[in-house]
Design a protein that fits this description.
Layout lengths: L5 H17 L10 H10 L5 E3 L2 E6 L2 E11 L2 E13 L6 H8 L4 E7 L2 E11 L6 H22 L6
Antiparallel strand pairs: 1-2, 2-3, 3-4, 4-6, 5-6
């Protein structure tokens, strides 16, 4: 019986390329606003670049991604944030969230129309970090932000 190594080589090469595509390293210096917007659209989300941030959202919550530590448009850190105007913010809700929950940190902000709260999550871009890692950060934020909104009273279940 004669064995051909060609199909094995093709399959292994294809697996290697697939792994490379999934684990594509972020650009040196971090991504730009446009690259972040393109990445989010690739995740199936709507985006809009507005000044120094990318507006998007998921799971019924709108949020922004803002770049920090930027040089020549490339940002070495990014902050996810979602804000809500809460007419009847439960007393101590922000402090309780910060004591009991991980990842998203809450803060209360002054607002002319009442009490506002925001949840923020920071991502530091490190050498060798991948778009896949950014996707995991985005998924974490997008899954916890609705819990935050519900806890603060911004989402009322019927």
């Amino acid at each position: 019986m004669r064995f051909s190594a060609l199909p094995v080589v093709v399959v292994v090469a294809a697996m290697g390329l697939a792994g490379t595509a999934q684990a594509q390293t972020l650009p040196a210096g971090g991504p730009t606003l446009e690259e972040v917007s393109t990445w989010l659209r690739g995740q199936g989300l709507d985006t809009r670049v507005d000044g120094d941030r990318v507006q998007s959202g998921a799971n019924g919550v709108s949020w922004d991604l803002t770049g920090f530590d930027c040089t020549a448009g490339r940002c070495r850190s990014w902050q996810f944030s979602a804000g809500f105007l809460i007419p009847n913010l439960p007393e101590g809700a922000v402090s309780r969230w910060n004591l009991e929950m991980r990842y998203l940190k809450a803060l209360e902000l002054p607002h002319a129309e009442g009490r506002a709260v925001a949840a923020q999550y920071d991502v530091l871009i490190t050498p060798g970090m991948t778009w896949e890692a950014m996707t995991e950060h985005m998924r974490l934020f997008a899954s916890v932000a609705p819990l935050f909104a519900a806890e603060m009273g911004a989402i009322v279940e019927e």
